TrEMBL record:
Keywords: DNA-binding, Metal-binding, Zinc, Zinc-finger. PANTHER family: SI:DKEY-228B2.6-RELATED, THAP DOMAIN-CONTAINING. Signal peptide: none annotated. SMART domains: DM3, THAP. Residues 20-103 form the THAP-type domain. It comes from Tegillarca granosa (Malaysian cockle). It comes from the Eukaryota. This is THAP-type domain-containing protein. Gene3D superfamilies: THAP domain.
Amino acid sequence: MHTSDSLIRTRLKIKIDSKSKQHCCVPLCTFDARNNPNLNFHHIPKDPDVRKQWIIKIRRDEGTHFKITPSTVVCSKHFKPEDYKSWTPVRKVLNKNAIPSIFDWSKEGNPRRALKRKIVETVSGSLVGDIAIQSSESTSES
């Protein structure tokens, strides 16, 4: 009995250690399993069509700086609740064709600020900023 207990502890430790090394591969995402134990991590699918859609959505291309390996994962923060078919207290299960869609760069709540442009004209040799002022000569010509 003692050997089975130690075997279970060893397997549990291996599982915990492997999960603690998981971190999300999405750019600008800093979530990992060490600091966020409630997150789930999903491997990039093997189906070539779905895999291509994931890579496009997460804005990653395979190359010298990014390689898809068996440990490449995307965290659950990038999926909508309807992307899951069911979940248990232990694990969330994605729908077969679920694609990550929630990213820092696509949040609707943070619109880009409007560009502010200074309008600078010369009026009688002096610079005027922020507003356009027409001289009396230019208004009489129009």
